[in-house]
Amino acid sequence: MEAKRKMRFAMVCSSNMNRSMEAHSLLGRAGLDVASYGTGTQVKLPGPSLHEPNVYDFGTPYNVIYDDLRRKDPDLYKRNGLLPMLKRNTSVKLAPQRWQDNAGDGLFDVIFSFEERVFDLIVDDMHNREQRMLKNALIINMDVKDNHEEAGVGAKLALELCQKLEGAVDDWEEIIDDLIITFEKQHKRKLTYNMAFY
């Protein structure tokens, strides 16, 4: 019997820190083939005030960021959840990666974002890439507030939807409209989606 093809999923937020990593962690534990990315120009994390964010380059290992924040103010960054979040991230992968630089990572069947601005950047990026294979990719957005609690909720919803898509791997294009409508009614969440090609 032929093994069923597995879909590849990409989870994308702005800095590849909270929402995309929570979903990456959860989908990975559920056995899905998943990667995660950010679309920003740099990785930005809250600092001591609104006007003093902590800024890092993509590719800076999570454990380096963890050590830097722990050195700066361990109490603040433990209290606001950044240190536990970074500890989780180090167990998932080495460092935040940028979506726009991911061409070498291969093709994804489903690209899932957690805010409209990120969705728009992904759609633009996909349309600007050279389309050689004419293999389609589904881009889905579900707005999720960028805090630890909402990231957990968003990850569970992303997992549910991705498992449904994985279950329909060969004919998801025929059922996607109905699947999204049902999901939106069930969870009272509005989704946006688009098709792109590799």
Automatic annotation (TrEMBL):
Catalytic reaction equation(s): O-phospho-L-seryl-[protein] + H2O = L-seryl-[protein] + phosphate; O-phospho-L-threonyl-[protein] + H2O = L-threonyl-[protein] + phosphate
Bilayer-crossing regions: none
Enzyme nomenclature, EC number: 3.1.3.16
Record GO biological process: mRNA 3'-end processing
GO terms, molecular function: RNA polymerase II CTD heptapeptide repeat phosphatase activity
Record Pfam families: Ssu72 (PF04722)
Protein name: RNA polymerase II subunit A C-terminal domain phosphatase SSU72
Organism this protein belongs to: Oryza brachyantha
Gene: LOC102714242
